[in-house]
Amino acid sequence: MNHLFRWRRLARQTFMLLYSVINVLCASQKTVQSQQVKGIVGQSVSFPERVINSSNLLYKGLGSIANVYPGREAKITLEKRFENRLNLNNVTRYFILSDLQIDDAGVYTVENTDGEKKQNTFELTVYNVVSKPLVTECDSSSCSVVCSVDNEKEVTLTLYRGEEILNQTSSPDLTTDPSLRLEVEGKDYNSTYSCVAANPVSNRTVHVPKCCSENGHPNDADSDERTLGMLIIAVICVLVASGLVGLVIYLKNRRNGHSQGRYLSLRGVRSLHKVKACLAFFIIVFTVKGSVLER
């Protein structure tokens, strides 16, 4: 009798152990079937589980949001926000969610109810298209530029020299925009540089301009622009000074009367000739400088 009791208890324990193992295997099988699905705001995404005849689409926290019956189209049963956006593709027989929004992210389950119930789970993540990187702070004194991008979910910023990655960054803090500084050495002057912003669904590239010449000095174009600016300022100053000189001569002529007018007029003419010569010199320099810049 005691032997029989022991055998029964052993059989019960063995059965419970097998039951637990089967549950674990089933749970792991369900985990393997779950898939990651990524979408872009404003576009569409499909849940790649073929609907045969009858099926439900479940959304975590809301239950069934659509169901399909044999011979009928997909019907929205819950949640107004999915209305006119959730359909069943007649060719692939996949549920399709269109005009995606950020808050559409979550866990969706396609439940086929033909014969034995079968479920496939999809985790949807929705992203915005990544912004175009911005190249700023072109510092010619240190031959460096700064590349930055507006931060969003899972955005990375990468600097390339040709196909080689020089540096990469990202920030989990969405209030902080990722940025990278690039300093170009003379030996790398002829290389091409680019700044790439990317997230799991999109990427944007800008080419980084060169701030320095090959010998590590500020670009000749930048230097020429500064020189031209100084020249224009000098010409303006000379014009203003010439006007003041002419005005002073005119006032002196009137003050000293007609008897001295001829003498002062001669002095005025000589002064004006000097001013004209000075102006002519600056105009010639300005013209030559402009021709050099155009080349």
From TrEMBL:
Matching entries from InterPro entries are given as: Ig-like_dom_sf (IPR036179), Ig-like_fold (IPR013783)
Domain of life, per UniProt, equals: Eukaryota
Q: Where is the signal peptide?
A: 1-26
Q: Where are the transmembrane segments?
A: 228-251, 272-292
Q: Which UniProt keywords apply?
A: Membrane, Signal, Transmembrane, Transmembrane helix
Please report the name of this protein according to its UniProt entry: Uncharacterized protein
From what organism does this protein derive? Answer: Hucho hucho (huchen)
* Classification of source organism: Eukaryota, Metazoa, Chordata, Craniata, Vertebrata
